[in-house]
Write a sequence for this structure.
């Protein structure tokens, strides 16, 4: 098994107030609708989604991400998410911090995804940069879809 971690960290200017932005980025229906390529999702409770991604075939191996993730609001200007331990083969964590500006707010987005693939270490080293790039690209695309839906 080889482990991979991808990150996406960026600051965005949003043309809306902090409360609206925070609530939007913690809204499970919006998250599921804007996730992108998603095989299925299930609302577990008012803060938790079970997500199943389509199988990705990378020639040498294939991977289907599965995880259950909860979103919380630790402050009036923050939404955080974290995978429930043991809920799948992918771990997603992150935080969005919203700060008021004269024209809306900024959103400071930090996120990471960890996953394991059934490949040997040698193949894992070769795939590492590719997997990290895909993960970062997909997380960025999700954030941009969420912003467009805002």
């Amino acid at each position: 098994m080889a482990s991979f971690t991808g990150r996406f960290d960026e600051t965005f200017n949003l043309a809306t107030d902090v409360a609206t932005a925070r609530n939007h980025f913690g809204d499970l229906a919006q998250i599921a609708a804007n996730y992108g390529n998603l095989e299925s999702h299930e609302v577990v409770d008012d803060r938790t989604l079970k997500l199943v991604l389509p199988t990705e075939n990378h020639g040498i191996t294939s991977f289907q991400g599965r995880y259950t993730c909860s979103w919380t609001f630790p402050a009036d200007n923050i939404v955080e998410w974290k995978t429930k331990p043991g809920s799948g083969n992918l771990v997603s964590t992150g935080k969005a911090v919203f700060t008021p500006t004269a024209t809306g707010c900024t959103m400071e987005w930090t996120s990471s995804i960890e996953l394991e693939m059934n490949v040997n270490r040698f193949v894992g080293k070769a795939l590492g940069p590719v997997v990290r790039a895909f993960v970062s690209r997909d997380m960025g695309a999700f954030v941009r879809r969420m912003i467009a839906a805002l």
